[in-house]
Amino acid sequence: MEFKRFTSFIVLNLIATSTLYAQMEAQTLIFKKPASSYLEALPLGNGKLGAMDFGGTNTNRIVLNEKTLWSGGIQDADSDSAHLFLPKIQEYLLKGDNKSAQELLQKKFVSKGSGTGFGNGANDHYGAYQTLGDLLIQWKDTTAAVRNYHRQLELDKALATTNWERDGVKFSQETFVSMSGNFMAIKISASQKNKINLSLRLNRNEHALYSNRNGQLIMQGQLPNKDNKGMRYAAVLEPKIKGGSMKFAADQVEVKGATELIIYFSAATDYNIAEPAKPMDNPLPKAIAHIHVQNMAPYHLAKTAHQQAFQSFYHRNSFSLKSSQPEIAKMSTLDRLVAYEKGGKDAQLPVLYYNFGKYLLISSSQKGTLPSNLQGIWAPEYQTPWNGDYHLNINLQMNYWLAEPMGLGDLAEPLFEYTASLVEPGMKTAKAYYNAPGWVAHVVANPWKFTSPGEGAEWGSTLTGGAWLSEHIWEHFRFTKDKAFLKKYYPVLKGSAQFLSSILIKEPKNGWLVTAPSNSPEHTYIMPNGFKGTTAMGPTMDMQICRESFDYAIAAAEILQVDQEWADSLKTTRRQLAPLQIGADGDINEWLEDWKDAEPTHRHVSHLYGLHPYDEITPWDTPEMAVAARKTLAQRGDGGTGWSKAWKINFWGRLGDGDHALLLLKQLLKPVGTFSGTNYGNGGGTYPNLFCGHPPFQIDGNFGGAAGISEMLVQSHGKDEVIRLLPALPSAAEWQQGSLTGFRTRGAFSVDMSWANGKVEKARLTALEGGLCKLLLPAGKSVIDAAGKVLIAKQDKSGIVTFNASKGMNYTIL
Ligand code: FUC
Q: What pTM value is reported for the model?
């Protein structure tokens, strides 16, 4: 066979292989009963609207969400005179009097007013992400028993379906939230004519007015804000029937004797993403317009358009394992979780978890909206836990870890835009507290652009939130090489580096530059004098974030040929930063001194920020530090909240230990919560609908867990951005044969690959931008270009090879 044709044969073969492995049990969530809580409901969304379908056959509840629906409003929480106390706080820290520093910090260095409302800010200035309410479908003829009940969410179709039989009639309900339009559509059908008898109602427990006109049910209201009226919202529902009749009352519609019912729903708020201080007009016409657009297309076309739009994201990337257990396809997702925890074989459960993470990202984060919050877009609460806000000491960032490796970096646009929108308020906060240039965001943030410290200094004074967010901008550049993007967001990077570089002080012992006052997120140290505190100078995570922030600001300035002098001064500052230190126990110090941990198994592992997401610690660039990182993880243990376990999967992946990563993934998949009278366990884990349990539900663990799986399969981090294939593949039998497509790497390459016996069989790199490609070439493999020319001949041992890749060309590893 001619070589060119042979290569395209390989490529086709790769794609065929991946399709072959795409088992249904890696794409479908299954239930045998209606949901008893939203943690058993099926989540749907298009980045703006969210829904959770309970699949009930008597009353069916569908929880409704609109991404921007927040109570509260803009508040000035900056304490303008705080900076006057900064020298005194720093003086205490330099003297080692952390106690006095912390006391003064708590008095003077917290937000003005109630901050987040002490985590319960729904009726305070801060506000909370709130549910829009419920759509309630009340069936009339419910006396006869339900048979053959089945409920599923097909991830690759973004479609929830419920099927059941009653009185010899087969009913079905299918639901999607359109990715091509901005509405939800529900189709209810029956196998016999005129059997659909039900009523439809919109309900919100607070601040709701109901009406109907022109065949539509309308729910409108205004959420609370402490001083005046808050955000306005509107929700519209329009039913369409085949056969039968409809009767509208004030707040409900009765459907009698229909053969088919299609319900369209949409919603809007007056939130102005560009300028939150200036609300938009009445949202009702907008919500109605969303449905009007839909009315022009028949249901089946709307469904096809939705699925095509959704799949344009979903199919960009795939991961599959060959091993499968046929009996699993029929089991409910909860039964699978339970069996897996008991040691049952279920090769496809991790793949399902990966796909679910991808599904949630696409469904909760689309261009032009806010970023995914602590619950993504899905919340049944009026007071969401932690206000359902943006926590910046890991949680919001973790929501986006999987975007770049999955080739879905464009879905992180809401994060980039949100970060950019914090610059202006963050500059004011930087002046108020530090009298510093640049911008800062602390730990908590909301759509009202809160950047002040929290109301509690022990957790609320972490000052690296903004810089950690900025990391995502740089990572997007690393993955895409998009200079226009870098130029657009350069002021954000510059501003966070400016802030950090101007607040550093010299610690007395070594003369290193350190941040002060700060803390290591939410963890407490014990000083040799017995003082237990959080306030410190130069916690390790801060220093890592400083190094990272300065490095990318310097690199960006060079790439864009701007601010050379400033970049040079940053280089000098960077050299003086407090370095990583290994403590007496061989672990990495969390604080500047080798202090004892008050909670040795604390959920935050902030001092390993340098291992992940930042990459200053790698087994190849800094082997000694990698050993210390391993020791640190051993000390922290494998427990923790959902997101903490997810982070640890990423850590172990980066350490090249696939077995430990899988162990943590199994921990993350541990069923938790109480369902159908059974208590499945406490602590971090997974609910029956695969939502991650902190507990409570917090979506970061879903995203972090899926990102962790990608770390096991393809890596490209570290100083030289070498592409590593299967860097942390678990040794478990079911992981030994698989394939992936569309994985992205730093340097802008796309990877397709298949493997067998745990070794790369064949791979294809596509150079999306071109340039130097560094690859750890698997033993026995060659690099062949698209013309069939052998660029690098068979290597006996795996070693790093370098070649010049041309933009748009494919390179085969065979
Ligand atoms: C951080 C974590 C908590 C929780 C909260 C939303 O503060 O320490 O565990 O996830 O965010």
A: 0.97
Q: What is the distance between the alpha carbons of residues 46 and 60, in angstroms, rounded to a whole number?
A: 21
Residue from 388, 393, 368 nearest 602 by CA: 393
Chain centre to alpha carbon of residue 806 = 33
Cα angle 287-289-293, degrees, rounded to a multiple of 5 = 130
Write down the pLDDT at residue 228.
76
Phi first, then psi, for residue 408 (nearest 5°) are: -115, 30
Instruction: Tell me how far apart the alpha carbons of residues 752 and 741 are, in angstroms, rounded to a whole number.
Output: 4
Stretch (H or E) spanning 61: strand 59-66
- Sequence-distant (6+) residues with CB within 8 A of 32 are 149, 150, 151, 332
Tell me what the mean pLDDT of segment 200-221 comes to: 97
Q: What is the spatial distance between Cα 217 and Cα 132, in angstroms, rounded to a whole number?
A: 15
| CB 459, CB 519: distance < 8 Å | yes
784 alpha carbon to ligand 1 midpoint, in Å?
A: 48
* DSSP symbol at 70: B
640 CA to middle of ligand 1, Å?
Answer: 11
Going from the Cα of 217 to the center of ligand 1, the distance in angstroms, rounded, reads 39
Higher pLDDT, 292 or 442: 442
Whats the size of the chain, residue-wise? 814
**Nearest-angstrom CA–CA distance, 55 and 290:** 25
**Which atom of ligand 1 is closest in space to residue 395's alpha carbon?**
11
d(CA 523, CA 541): 12
**Alpha-carbon gap, residue 5 to 799, rounded angstroms:** 28
629, containing H or E segment: helix 623-636
Q: Give the closest residue (by CA) to ligand 1 atom 10.
A: 395
User: Which residue has the least CA distance to atom 8 on ligand 1?
Assistant: 522
Phi and psi, residue 87, nearest 5°? -60, -40
- pLDDT on residue 296: 77
Compute, in angstroms, the gap from residue 536 CA to the centroid of ligand 1. 20
Å from CA of 694 to ligand 1 middle? 9
Between CA 648 and CA 668 the distance in angstroms is: 10
β strands within 545-613, DSSP E:
596-597
Burial of residue 206 (CB within 10 Å: 0-12, 13-18, 19+) is: middle
Give residue 586's region: left, alpha or beta (phi > 0; psi -120 to 50). left
Average pLDDT over all residues of the chain: 95
- Mutation choice for ligand 1 from 399, 698, 700, 702, CB with most ligand atoms inside 8 A: 698
Distance 521 CA to ligand 1 centre (A): 9
Which amino acid is it at 403?
A
Q: Which atom of ligand 1 is nearest to the CA of 644?
A: 9
Give residues (CB < 6 A) around ligand 1.
374, 386, 391, 393, 395, 522, 603-604, 641, 643, 694, 698
Residue 18 above 80 pLDDT? no
- Per-residue pLDDT tens digits for 609-660: 999 999 999 999 999 999 999 999 999 999 999 999 999 999 999 999 999 9
pLDDT for residue 8 = 41
Confidence at residue 91, expressed as pLDDT on a 0 to 100 scale: 98
DSSP 365-416: --TTSPPPBTTBT----SS-GGGG-EETTTHHHHTTTTTTTTT-GGGGHHHH
pLDDT of residue 261: 98
| Most informative mutation of 386, 394, 606 for ligand 1 (most atoms within 8 A of CB) | 386
List, for residues 733-786, the tens digit of each pLDDT value: 999 999 999 999 999 999 999 999 999 999 999 999 999 999 999 999 999 999
